[in-house]
Amino acid sequence: MASLMALTALGAREPAVVEIGPLRITERTDLALASVAARRGRMADLAAAAQTAGVPLPEAARHQAGTSYSAFWTAPEMWFVEAPFGSHEMIADLLKTTLGDAASVTEQTDAWVAFDLAAADPAPLLERLCNVDFRAVPKGYATRTVVEHLGVYLVKLDQGTVRLYGPRSSAESLLHALEGAAASAW
Amino acid sequence: MIIHHPILGPRDAQEFVYLGDASLIERPDGMTAGVEVFHEYLYQRTNPAGEHRELWYHEQGDRSWLVVTRNTVTHEITRVELARDVARSKGRSK
Amino acid sequence: MSQSHRIEGGQIDRTKTLRFTFDGVPYQGHPGDTLASALLANGVRLMGRSFKYHRPRGPISSGSEEPNALVELRSGGRQEPNTRATVAELYDGLTANSQNRWPSLRFDAMGINDKLSTFFAAGFYYKTFMWPKSFWEKLYEPIIRRAAGLGSVTREEDPDAYDKGFLHCDLLVIGAGPTGLMAALTAGRAGKRLILADEDFRMGGRLNVETFAVGQALGADWAAGVVAELTSLPNVRLMTRTTVIGAFDHGIYGAVERVSDHLLAPAQGKPRQVLWRIYAGKAILAAGATERPVAFENNDRPGIMLAGALRAYATRWGVKVGERVAVFTNNDDGIRTAIDLQAKGVDVVAVIDSREGGALLPGIRHLQGAEVIDTSGKLGLKSVTIRQANGRSETIAVDALGVSGGWNPNVNIHSHHRSRPVYDDAIAAFVPGQDGPPGLSVAGAAAGAFSTHAALKTGRDAAIAALDLTGAAPDLPEAEDAPTRVTPLWFVHHGKGRAWIDQQNDVTVKDVKLAHQENFTSVEHLKRYTTLGMATDQGKTGNVIGLAVMAELTGRSIPDTGTTIYRPPYTPVALGTLAGRSRGKEFKPFRLTPSHHWAKEQGAIFVEVGNWLRTQWVPKTGETEWRQSVDREVLATRKSVGICDVTTLGKIDIQGTDAGAFLDRVYANTFSSLAVGKCRYGLMLREDGIVFDDGTTARMGENEYVMTTTTANAVTVFRHLEFCRQCLWPDMDVQLISTTEAWAQFSVAGPNARNLLEKVVDQDISDAAFPYMGAGNVTVCGGLRARLFRISFSGELAYEIAVPTRYGDALLREMLSKGAEYDPIVYGTEALGVMRIEKGHVAGGELNGQSTALNMGLGKMVSKKKDSIGMVLSQREGMVQENGYRLVGVKPVDPQGKLTAGSHFLEKGAAAVAANDGGWLTSKVYSPHLGCDIALGYLKGGDRKIGQRMRIVNLLGNLDTEVEIISPHMFDPEGERLRG
Predict the structure, then answer these.
(1) Does C621 lie in the same domain as C747?
(2) What is the pTM of this model?
(3) What value of ipTM does the predicted structure carry?
(4) Which residues in chain B are contacts of A76 at CB distance < 8 A?
(5) C1 pLDDT band (50/70/90 cuts)?
């Protein structure tokens, strides 16, 4: 592989881990991401190919975990598919090969910064950041929302874990917002 | 305001961008219609005090364009449809 | 004289003492005190000066309706003006200062206004300061603002943070008095998600100031018990110190939580206040009622208070406002004040009851059919003069007077959607009308149900109705159910002195009479003419009296006179709270480019482009002036090679079998014919024919394109494409996704661009293998996926190379080190601008939302062989005039001549007037190649004026420069360099 050294979205060699009170923020640089959109009228073909390939295509506003691929819904007939970066850096090529011409696939890995937020109850944090009713939505809920002017994807992995995908170029601002809200919440 | 998205349920209007009258869907064909017809399409509005069908874009959401039927006096929203479905129902295709 | 007016009892913690200062004088109070209760406990009643007449004033209330006792709290960056002492919670170390007085509160020089009051009647400003108009801004307004101000604003930055947040519930209960508590108990026990919000720091509402029982307990203890039960329920969120400020559309309520206002300073990391956006399925307004005074002469002296406030200070805070107290009332609740005060050991010397008949109070001098007609006492009440039923007047020495004119339901939030309150004769007050905010019901005193029993019952019923509860509801505890007995009395007809209606705005009965005399008789006109009901208290105590006086003057009934309605916010909200975290450097999030860290190491200067921070130039040692750096970057690029981070340009991935056809519709020119592996400049119009955006779009595969947008329009272009895809051509097979941030993209430009890139690109990129306008996937540095586009904005041999963003920093460093032999430099947006203007490429200044393709000299790009957005309307008569604006280049005849963007074209000898205007300069730079200023501009008929001489005039900049009109392609017009 290439000789170039990667930088994280925060401009470091190693992903950030920040602890504030009961909250642990972990930057995830080990996730590969690609968008998968059904070509017009090809949803059935895409669903079949995805099933064979083990790519989950969950219903609206949901995240579904799989063996090597997980995915969450982003738009009608469109998903973001996640996989381990180490084995799937070429996620777009891999998915294109698997899903064929039933889908439009676009690499999204470096368009986003991913933060996993872990706390016994993240609700006091999230209610200061976005309008998601975190306590009420089920595990596996996935939505786009706004955090301090930034459009982000929020996935409720479980009652105490949230994954946020924010625009990579604003990673510092997003982390700053998370830190400020956490200090305020706890 | 709250817009009841046909797929995602109630969502805050802050997530949306407003465009205007839903008649913007009914764009004339540029190869057959002339300036007059396009002028009507682009500029002429009824601007009702009451029920109004209008286009909203779920920019901070699933990027769906919606046709929202809203009372401009009370802000009551009585119907929300996917604009794509509305467009097809008006015979639009490719 | 420590707490000379403190008496037994009250909900204060006497085991702890809090020290505070007012106007620099130290005092003591206790936890549970407000600033007003603590000052009153210390015998301080004078707390402010009135707005217009600078009359000495003390508090008239014990709550948020307070019009008078406005103070400046805290100091330095935390100084906050116009804070009501009646709701400012006392803490140890609090500092407060009176306002609107000079040099001191006791002696205020502006008190002269009081003597000149005849000149300051309603409409005074409108009449006096009309002419000459030019005097208004320079003279009148500054003087008026200084003389008639309220508090002053600190010039220091507020050190505290303000949060915003979002809450969700099935039921929001606004107000935690008996009504709200009973509603909350009903909903809470039913397991509903509930928010109970109250502006006070202690829940219970009026139960905290009353002496009667609810069930087996004292009202305040019953309230505490309910609060304890609600606290234990996981589905209930209790929010004290939280004011619901407004009802917005579709069940959204705004609320301000004062998290730290009761502390010396916020705890580390904690906000001062939080602005909550509450999404409530249903809401119950249980905001209670506000007592109103009666207007009589000199009714504004410190020591004259609402009767219920006198009682509240005695019961809740253990404070007697005066040693000898009288009560003036037109209703039974005023009687209750007299009884409660007497039970507390306060000397109640008289009850002046405007009503006649009925039983006399035992053990108190109860004067029926009597009215207060005047008072005395300069800085505090000394006596009241009354007129008895038999017409005899009598002066009674008192130092406190409680006044009750009845109670007004707090309908405010119910009228936030323009519902007009309606007048209810039975309680002589306005109650909520029809068409309030959907989902909001009103209960208890806010709905005109004044007894405690009625409050409890309507609270419970409202919760049951709002939530469709079917299970067992909580039992109603026993409580007083006294009828409301009030005989309206709005103002005392006596004498010629001033009787205040709205103490905050110094509106008197006379002012209303004047408004009537001058025919401002509608309530809306009355409000604007007299300022009745404006400012921080929104007329909570005075409004109804004012319109009742107007009703009497016009001979109309109060319902016929009507009332103004209330708008959000319910109480004043600090601007910092509305701003939240969005201020200063955090006004908006920053977007950083992949080369940001490298550039920062180099000491680069950054410029904000939208939210992006882009490198503007990169100074080298010894460069002291920006032009030195920019000129060097331009010259070095054109001489050898320069690199520029262009990641900020919008990138949209467009796929699908109809992708080409789709691009033909959204671009004015054709893309379906573009070969795979090539790119093309695209011009995008709005439907009205004006240019929307431009950029290059590459065909990466049969059904796959990558579109580039300008940095500024990345979001709006994407939105527009989605509109076209979903609303106009819903069956096209097209999929869109933004990839702006996924790729770090660098422009590599200059004669050595290819030589440099060959050091990092793994494939053959010779001119034959990768010709001008080529595009494709390559690898760099031994296999890393990359995209290469041979496009040029600078006019040089140039490429744009993109790698996944995480490798962008490393690629830049690799190019600089591997290509060191070519002396590569990194250039910023300034050099980028110089080179694009030298080449005549349009950018922000030209893409100004007013210009057509024809204006830009790109008219031929609009294909008429296909339908595209904007094609038809771009052909409108007015937009294709021969003498319309055309893009031209401009250079001064004298190379030393100066140009500035925004200057106008004039013919030589023409006067600098609009009629002679020939157009304007859109962009200007200094060209180090041409050795002079150059500019682009829109000139009427400019395409036919190439070679002519004109003038560039800027009257603001005192500029008048003779120029030559030249082709916009000022550098290498044949394009030999970029094809090299």
Answers:
(1) yes
(2) 0.95
(3) 0.99
(4) 7, 62, 64, 82
(5) very low
